[in-house]
Amino acid sequence: MTRILGIDPGSRITGYGVIDIEGNHAKHVANGCIRIKGETLAEKLHQIFREIDETITSYQPDEVSIEKVFMHKNADSALKLGQARGVAIAACATRGLEVFEYTANQVKQATVGKGHAKKEQVQHMVKILLCLQEDLQEDAADALAVALCHGHSRDILMRIEGVRGVKGGRLV
Questions:
Q1: What is the pTM of this model?
Q2: Active site residue 67
Q3: Of 55, 58, 158, 170, which one has the greatest count of Cβ atoms within 10 A?
């Protein structure tokens, strides 16, 4: 069994989701949102770092998956998202955890079956895949989807590993 922490980074809300995966069976462990407060950028980024570190302490993941930043129209938003993502990755790296990165389209493809699925479709499929009854907050559902994406991709990477080798979630 492997425990995976999925992170959906954000400058206002960072979602996290923890699953246990064995073979192709995934089990929900926890999910939640870090609601960013603080006056300065440094305070906000420190909060993300500290709370991701606390989440790691609480749930002891074996691996971490995080959504990659994409730039749409607003460069300022992408920069803030990148900073939030960077401190989340640093919190994981400080604990010696390997971090695997996935694009939003990869996450949607893995959970819904199409790369341009809507957020509501992702939320719905996460509930089905993890047999959850309660509604999920959007950012927590996205984080669980990132964890599920890694859980599915991880199995494929392990199969390929015998052929070519895998390092850091990438073929080498």
A1: 0.88
A2: yes
A3: 55
